[in-house]
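User: Okay, second chain of the day. Same drill as before: sequence in, structure tokens out.
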Amino acid sequence: MEYRRFYQSGGWYFFTVVTGNRNPILIDNIERLREAFRLCLSRYPFEIEAIVILPDHLHALWKLPEGDADFSRRWMVIKRKFSSGLSGAVISASKAKKREKGIWQRRFWEHYIRDEEDWRRHVDYIHFNPVKHGYVSEPQNWQYSSYQKAIDKGWYEANVLCEDDFKDMNYE
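Assistant: Same drill. Structure tokens below.
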């Protein structure tokens, strides 16, 4: 099966990126992940509109610059920088041939944001995700999220997200 990604210059995209075998390594290596994002942003600028980091996956919503649609290159840089220096899992010959360590799942899931309502639903989903997974009871209690920045920007008043708002959404 051949999967074709949709690349839109200057577009907004929602992403789900998962560690290999759902290994819970992201929080334990949060500074390494932040450094990977900083490196990527310095080379290939984009805006992070919303993000949440969980132990074994992350969700993010990016705004790409006009004239640039290459989110795949950005994820490659982030994954490689994060993985550099980490010992990998036991991997298959095909992964070894492609210089993969098994730290990340090979691919990532992306969704092109169509309009403001779509954008809002995905931003809300990102910020509610730690509650959905049972890590915290309220989004503001998860420190690895852009929720507080969203409040500071006036996108939310505190305590506005509830579980019923997200029962039909599943982007894992």
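Strands lie at 12-18, 47-53, 57-63, 109-112.

User: Thanks, on to the next one.
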